[in-house]
């Protein structure tokens, strides 16, 4: 488990990835995304998670350049979108993301969704990109167990990451256990269920106990469950607050109580019914 903001998790290929970062889904390109990335970097974040679909890779890249930190200090994730999938198309999409970000290499490249009949070919292209050294680790997003099983049966490299919707209403325990068994690190998107958990009485009561917000309680729960977490915010004060979760610990009992809030309820789409 990570114990401070710049702690890393060792992925299945030996690459070290920060255990906590900033997500920029639906963050407008240009000044808005640059302000968010600057605030994150200034507050000690080193992981930034974007995607070609987010349409803000240019702003993320510009913010990184302006921050003037050594390249090896920050860790950038981007993703190949559904209409870019397939063997040749994925290689083109990767080059396009690399150019927009203004980077020589990407730290982590993910398949955004498991597009039926295409994700295995997409993965073959990603394996080649990995072998060429243009990306340090490759993984997937929104994959169920059966997607992972099919992918691993038809490929050489086991995904380093599976980034999925994960929060106290969707604890994904079976998937998490499967990923652990196969050396795949789970990563959470929408860890706060798009704000829908902020009025949960139990989380609020825990917040009072530890002098934290309900959001900070959830983010701490994620970290203690050994799940890499990338809450999204555009507000510098919230970005700072989200990371202030390393000065307390939830008890084993409290962790179990939060687990018991599970409803298998998604704020996003189920990967099996994603169009």
Could you walk me through the main structural features you see in this protein, from its secondary elements to its overall organization?
This protein is α/β, with parallel strands linked by helices. The mean pLDDT is 94. α1 packs parallel to α9 and α7 packs across α8 (214-224). It has an eight-stranded parallel beta sheet. The protein has a two-stranded antiparallel ribbon with strand order 1-2. It has a domain at 8-191 and 226-233: TIM Barrel, CATH 3.20.20.100. The protein has helices at 31-42, 57-67, 87-101, 119-131, 145-153, 173-181, 201-210, 214-224, 236-242, 252-259, and strands at 8-10, 16-18, 22-23, 47-49, 75-80, 106-111, 135-141, 161-165, 185-189, 228-229.
CATH superfamily of the domain at 8-191 and 226-233: NADP-dependent oxidoreductase domain
Task: Count the beta strands.
Answer: 10
Rg over C-alpha atoms, rounded to the nearest angstrom: 18 Å
Mean pLDDT: 94
The CATH top-level class label of the domain at 8-191 and 226-233: Alpha Beta
Structural class label: alpha/beta
Q: Per CATH, which architecture of the domain at 8-191 and 226-233?
A: Alpha-Beta Barrel
CATH topology of the domain at 8-191 and 226-233: TIM Barrel
The number of helical elements comes to 10
Q: Report low-confidence residues grouped into runs of 5 or more.
A: none
Strand order of the largest sheet: 3-4-5-6-7-8-9-10
Strand content: 15-25%
Fraction of residues in H or I helices: 25-40%
- First-last Cα distance: 36 Å
Q: In this structure, how is the largest beta sheet organized?
A: 8 strands, parallel
What's the SSE pattern? EEEHEHEHEHEHEHEHHEHH
